[in-house]
Design a protein that fits this description.
With about 110 residues, the protein is an alpha+beta fold. The chain is built from 3 helices and 5 strands, in the order ββαβααββ. Strand 1 (about 1-5) and strand 2 (about 10-15) form a beta hairpin. It starts with a strand and ends in a 6-residue tail after the last strand.
């Protein structure tokens, strides 16, 4: 699937993400700044925070309790569409997904 990442300054980057890969892995692999991912994808750091486009938010699997708790500690403001990008796994159904990067991760 193709996933679009939008930086706080409005710059967009479209990445072709392999199915089964997390959005965090794809972003760091492509050197996208704005995703820190200190814990390496273990849902322990909240430095891979993204805002999912509202049109897509309800189409993602629901938050786990761990993800929900961690997002409360994210550096940038938490919004209803906040997710951890290491917990969003690319599938064909997510082709066209748009996520926005917060203004800071730490
Ligand atoms: Fe640490 Fe996602 S990379 S919570």
């Amino acid at each position: 699937p193709t996933i679009t990442f939008i930086r706080p300054d409005g710059a967009q980057r479209e990445l072709a993400v392999a199915e089964g890969t997390s959005l965090m892995q794809a972003a760091t692999h492509h050197g996208l700044d704005g995703i820190v991912a200190e814990c390496g994808g273990n849902a322990m750091c909240a430095t891979c925070h993204v805002y999912v486009d509202e049109a897509w938010s309800a189409r993602l699997p629901p938050l786990s309790d761990d993800e929900d708790a961690l997002l409360d500690g994210a550096a940038a403001e938490r919004r209803p569409t906040s997710r951890l990008s290491c917990q969003i796994i690319a599938t064909a159904a997510l082709d066209g997904l748009v996520v926005r990067l917060p203004d800071r991760q730490v």
